Amino acid sequence: MIYTVSRLMGACAIAALSTAATAETLTIATVNNGDMIRMQGYTDNFTEKTGHTVEWVTLEENVLRQRVTTDISTKGGAFDIMTIGMYETPIWGANGWLVPLDGLSEEYDVGDILPAMSGGLSHDGTLYAAPFYGESSMIMYRTDLMEAAGMEMPDAPTWDFIGEAARAMTDRDNEINGICLRGKAGWGEGGAFITAMSNSFGARWFDMDWNAQFDTQPWADTLNFYVNLMNDAGPPGYATNGFNENLSLFQQGKCGMWIDATVAASFVTNPDDSTVADKVGFALAPDTGLGKRSNWLWAWALAIPAGTQKEDAAKEFIEWATSKEYIELVAENEGWANVPPGARASLYENPNYQEVPFAQKTLDSILSADPNDSTVEPSPYVGIQFAAIPEFAGIATEVSQEFSAVYAGQQTVEEALAKAQALTNDAMEAAGYR
Question: What CATH topology corresponds to 138-295+372-430?
């Protein structure tokens, strides 16, 4: 962006200063999801515009979270830009660990960011991370297998319907699993899925006094339903499957249904990567009739750690990567179905994007997710697939490990829930909540 270079030129009073003379090398930590991998392929466009170069550190989701959390909390300084989400951003912003994203250019149009995204990436009204893409979760399903099973997917199904359909579509002889769901340990992997699912069964992490709720019937109902469903209709080894593993299975034609991030829609419908690209339908995440669906709200976003010596260049990168112009760049080269979704209102007003088969369902899913009212019974926390408190990531990672041990057949549902109850209450008491 020329405005940053021009400001530096004026400040330094060197009329002949060139972009190359002020060029920086930015180190960026990011997740190994498809849209982020795609962004790396366009880095030359950013370098051409600004003179800045980029070194990527691309990590699996659980590893990324561990690395960036350790680096920022210890002021390690390894990264100039971090890929983080709605859980970390408000907490880290409140701690003073992130550079406020104020002063972005008029052309960038901060007001175009969907309120659900900007709200979740702000603290006290200040934006601390810009959404590269936003997502909820929804059902992606094989229309041909649903038809062969003699069933029709409702626009807003129940979990009972999903269970019936998954079992009907399962064909072990042909390696077709009726449903693929996350079981991988990690608060943002399998932990995120089972928490969002539990909301629809009437469960919550804490009551209004911050007492753990894993000893309640709704949690037992959630976990038993999930385990029975996956044992009957899920893939072998589902205890270690996360987003990327299930994406691969679906693209290979081995899943009848997959309930996961809306952002996956572009990958399962891309004929270059998916063997079932022309046989995919979409529906809202399921419920149980209690008034809450099992969809989450998330953004993978770009933030600048406080203390970086390259703040101006980092802001230039964030403006480039999360801009309307970047969306148009991807659309021009790869088609509108492959642009990063869920972040900007203007994308959903674009007639070209409205033709994309999953666009409206993605937006409907995002707009129906309310982090301030995510549970049937009142809860003291903000968040759908997480509780927005600093202690949650550590506690939920341990809980998810107990749940994954159930999925792997290493302990019972009752044992896992008892351990989850005890470890959560112990951690909350040590943190001073109780």
Answer: D-Maltodextrin-Binding Protein; domain 2 (3.40.190)
